[in-house]
UniProtKB/TrEMBL annotation:
GO terms for molecular function: glycosyltransferase activity. This is Glycosyltransferase. Residues 14-171 form the Glycosyltransferase 2-like domain. It comes from the Bacteria. The lineage of its organism: Bacteria, Bacillati, Actinomycetota, Actinomycetes, Micrococcales. Belongs to the glycosyltransferase 2 family. Keywords: Glycosyltransferase, Transferase. InterPro entries: Glyco_trans_2-like (IPR001173), Nucleotide-diphossugar_trans (IPR029044). Pathway: Cell wall biogenesis; cell wall polysaccharide biosynthesis.
Length: 316
């Protein structure tokens, strides 16, 4: 397919969907209502069984549906959606979010205003829960060793210099996506956005923009040390993959964030109502995190038709 004419500040949104059709409909309505219009909306349906794909198809010509024959998790969904967006439309920016992230009408405009005329490559929104409370699950990591000039410049643009941000409303420059590659699909869930945003921001600048607000409609208001149950496996495995294999962090940062992760794991165990499940997740996560490594996306995302082809072109 030929790429459309590129407009200045053209933005393509990428929404990863899995079995939340009512929320997906709300997200798509909010995206169409943005004060700064989107060039396109890519919805990646991760093999939903509730008709989420039909919701995307019914949303109009501005929405492209990428239907995956198997659930590739949030990490695989974003890898597929970002690849299709960059390969097919060549926008200036990608705006990433889950299907339970409802942006307020000025959310995108505020992000774009913060990066206009700068060398910033990432901007993240303020994430609140349904009652307006700051959502602790999506708190960005401030850039601990930002220079004074970088902090002043971020404040001048209404934000805070960051070292990482969440896929719950992350604006990223598409030329940088081509430079550093896509999220690692084998992460499946958890820490995929931590690894990716720190990879993009290593040696580059990003900003947290409180004026850009999105509502993350999770079932409960929980932080990253809330009891994850069996999913604790992914937290442990992916963190070990990241600290041992990824080049997104410096050696000192790996020590710093590694210590923080151990502290959070201890808190998670202390607050858990079923520590046997967490012990099992930790054992399996430690085993796989130390004995294996994530596969290249071309391998883990093979057999997905056009999405696989786009991933191969963007991630080479």
């Amino acid at each position: 397919m030929n790429s459309p004419t590129i407009r200045p500040r053209a933005v393509v949104a990428v929404v990863v969907a899995y079995n939340r059709r009512e929320l997906l409909a709300e997200v798509l309505e909010a995206l169409r209502a943005q004060r700064h219009p989107l060039a396109r909306i890519i919805v990646v349906d991760n093999a939903s069984t509730d008709g989420s794909g039909e919701v995307a198809l019914a949303a109009g010509d501005a929405v492209d549906l990428v239907s995956l024959p198997r659930n590739t998790g949030g990490a695989g969904g974003f890898a597929a959606g970002m690849a299709v967006a960059v390969d097919r439309y060549e926008p200036e920016w990608l705006w990433l979010m889950d299907d339970d992230t409802v942006p307020t009408p000025d959310a995108l405009a505020a992000l774009l205003d913060s990066v206009a005329g700068t060398d910033l490559v990432v901007a993240g929104s303020r994430v609140v829960w349904t009652d307006g409370t700051e959502h602790p699950m999506n708190t960005p990591r401030a850039k601990a060793f930002a220079s004074k000039s970088e902090r002043i410049d971020a404040a001048r643009h209404g934000g805070i210099a960051i070292r990482s941000t969440s896929f719950v409303s992350m604006l990223v420059r598409s030329d940088v996506v081509r430079e550093v590659g896509l999220p690692i699909a084998d992460y499946f869930i958890w820490n995929d956005d931590f690894e990716y945003s720190t990879r993009v921001l290593r040696g580059r600048r990003g900003i947290h923009v409180p004026a850009s607000v999105v509502v993350h409609k999770t079932k409960v208001l929980g932080s990253t040390d809330a009891d994850p149950g069996a999913r604790f496996y992914y937290e442990v495995r992916n963190k070990l993959w990241m600290f041992r294999r990824s080049r997104s962090l410096s050696a000192f940062e790996k020590l710093l964030y590694g210590a923080s992760s151990v502290r959070r794991w201890i808190l998670t165990f202390a607050r858990s109502s079923d520590r046997a499940v967490l012990r099992d997740g930790w054992k399996r996560g430690y085993r796989d995190g130390t004995r294996t490594r994530p596969r290249p996306n071309a391998m883990s995302m093979a057999g997905l038709g056009g999405a696989s082809e786009a991933i191969a072109r963007v991630d080479r």
